[in-house]
Amino acid sequence: MSYRISHRTTYVYDEVVTASYGQLHQMPSDVDGQRCLERQVVIDPVPDMFHERVDFFGNRAAVFAIHAEHKELVVSSRCVVDTSSRPVSIDDVDAGTWEQVRDAVWSTEAVGADRAARGFALESPMVPALDAIAAYAAPTLTAGRALHGAVTELVHRINTEFAYEPGTTGVDTPLATVVEERRGVCQDYAHLLLGALRSVGLPAAYVSGYLETAPPPGKPRLVGADQTHAWVGVYCGGNRWIGVDPTNDGLAGPRYVTTAYGRDYSDIPPLKGVIYTNAATNELSVEVDVIPV
Predict the structure, then answer these.
(1) Could you give all domains of the chain from N- to C-terminal order, each with its CATH number?
(2) Which of 34, 107, 173, 207 sees the fewest Cβ atoms within 10 Å?
(3) Is the peptide bond before 87 cis (omega within 30 degrees of 0)?
């Protein structure tokens, strides 16, 4: 399966902007069993500086600077990604028990990928260690349980025990509030699963990307299409990761396209920046299409 993806972000300001500086994570690379076949970013006004780089987590990113005066900024990214090698079942991952994975990561003899994964098992700015989350995870992460079985159950519990309600939370809503009110959106679901897994020392990464906009005949439309989506990469040991999506209660399989990994949303927002202006307000619109080709 291959997808042609377009992501267009438009800002309209009520006063002139004299300078804009931005960074975007909208550039898929060859990870998670996917291959990026084409990639392009177009910015209007044309930036005075545009530079692609690889960030701390290994993601492809870009930074830009615009010094011309403007009242509208449009950032468009386009790509074609082949996802045919993504996993189709979490049961294909024979990782042993969750304790075995955790112990391998935290062993004094851990090297390479196991040792590097430790950074994804620690607290992060948007996923603090909370007693409420540890208590929520405890009935599932019982002693001797297979990792894939425990993860599958946690994904299902979050999907069924929390209400998906767009508009009830924002990027600055504390995770403690999400746990207390039992509602949120894909970003909150991902942060909750991260906190649950990290509460017992398991590495897990926040994953940003896209979902298929129009599903094949007979397939359900996934929640979160027509916008960027978030799910979780669970470390399985031996430099193996598996993507799971609590928003849609399943595996992040061939209908998913990964753009970036991080500890939480704050590491990899699709687009962020700084502007210099006297504008009091702005209008923001985002259009995403993920079309099979």
Answers:
(1) 2-83+269-292 (2.60.40.2250), 90-267 (3.10.620.30)
(2) 107
(3) no
What is the β-pairing status of strands 250-251 and 240-245?
antiparallel
- DSSP category for residue 146: B
Closest CA to 155 of 219, 56, 247, 226: 247
Distance from C-alpha of 68 to C-alpha of 126, rounded to nearest angstrom: 35
Q: Which residue would you say has higher pLDDT here, 23 or 222?
A: 23
Q: Which two tokens stand for residue 66?
A: 């615009």
CB 43 within 8 A of CB 50: yes
* pTM (2 d.p.): 0.94
Neighbours of 221 (CB within 10 A): 13
Q: Among 263, 281, 284, which residue's Cα sits nearest to residue 272?
A: 284
Beta strand 183-184 with 163-164 is: parallel
Phi, psi of 154 (to 5 degrees): -60, -45
HSE-up of residue 85 (Cα within 13 Å, Cβ side):
9
pLDDT band at 224 (very low <50, low <70, confident <90, very high): low
Cα–Cα distance measured from residue 218 to residue 35, given in angstroms and rounded to the nearest whole number: 26
Per-residue model confidence (pLDDT) at position 66: 98
Q: What is the dihedral of CA 260, 26, 257, 231, to 10 degrees?
A: 50
Mean pLDDT, the chain, rounded, equals: 94
Which residues, 6+ apart, have CB-to-CB distance to 263 below 8 Å? 119, 120, 122, 124, 125, 127, 205, 206
Q: What is the DSSP letter of 263?
A: S
Q: For residue 216, what are its two tokens?
A: 């094949």
Backbone torsions φ then ψ of 287, nearest 5 degrees: -125, 125
Per DSSP, what are the bridge partners of residue 206?
232, 262
pLDDT tens for each residue of 2-52: 999 999 999 999 999 999 999 999 999 999 999 999 999 999 999 999 999
